[in-house]
Amino acid sequence: MQTNRLDAQRLTHTYGQGEAAAPALADVSLTIGAAGPEAVAIMGPSGSGKSTLLHVLAGIIAPAEGTVVWRGRDLATMRDGERTKLRRSDFGFVFQSGQLLPELPAVENVALPLMLGGGSRSAAEAQAGALLHRLGLGGMLARRPGELSGGQAQRVAIARALVGSPGIVFADEPTGALDRGTGGAVMSLLIGATLGHGASLVVVTHDPEVASACSRIVRLEDGRIVSDERAADAAAPGGAGPDVAAALPTVHSYGAAVAEQRVANPMPGAAAQQPWIEVSR
Ligand code: ADP
Ligand code: MG
What we know:
- By secondary structure, the chain is of the alpha/beta class.
- The chain has one domain (about 5-275): P-loop containing nucleotide triphosphate hydrolases (Rossmann fold), CATH 3.40.50.300.
- It has 9 helices and 10 strands.
- Helix 3 (about 105-115) crosses helix 4, helix 3 packs parallel to helix 5 and helix 5 (about 150-160) runs parallel beside helix 6 (about 180-195).
- The longest helix is centred in the C-terminal third of the chain and has 17 residues, at about 180-195.
- It is globular and about 50 Å long.
- The model is unreliable at about 235-280 (pLDDT under 50).
- Magnesium ion binds next to helix 1.
- Adenosine-5'-diphosphate binds near residues 48 and 49.
């Protein structure tokens, strides 16, 4: 069995060239999941390179220097299509907001990664529905993102990140657009459900409370790791129960066509929000 270990060595990244060059990552090395699933908070001031690090770890952008090795394979040696597939099957993503496709009901948003991976629509929606039930959204399957509260939308996004049973989930300020109470509840769910699925979590956050719920805190400053601390009372797996097949209400069926169209014609900048869409590097 392959372990879900992500090994980043000596990552450097610079945006722009010449005079305009801005170093965003400088000699960052980090191993995640070496001893089983863990929840890692990435903290640091605005502009310190947190999002860049997340995108490099997830193979969304290629580092200028350094390597990212996932389950023993160097991401840089993969073809674009292979890396896209890997992002879809092995990685899950949760962003601050706006990542759900507005035309699709919640259940179809969650089913989408499975369908893109070749799963049948009915199986994908059954699995998506069951997971949404488990995450407390059983009554929301047919709602579109615009009909959900911010916290509910993030829980749908968490379900979408987990539905394909990823080995690692990347989250970039997932509670940044929520009020404190809602954010706390969403974070507990994210940590519990991710570890409960046997995956590690890498979460960028400004919130010390969120960070303290993680088992490890990595701090960045000016693109460098300035500290990497493990909490004494590491977050324990939990939160996600066994799979329960759920009776699903009928859902609209034009969603898949909309999704296919979107995937064929991704909007500019879509890659960062829809990481299962192929990005050219
Ligand atoms: P954080 O997520 O910690 O706020 P980022 O990783 O977004 O930091 O940014 C790190 C640095 O890289 C900042 O100086 C930022 O201005 C710069 N940067 C980020 N994205 C781009 C980009 N697409 N083009 C140019 N510079 C960028
Ligand atoms: Mg950021």
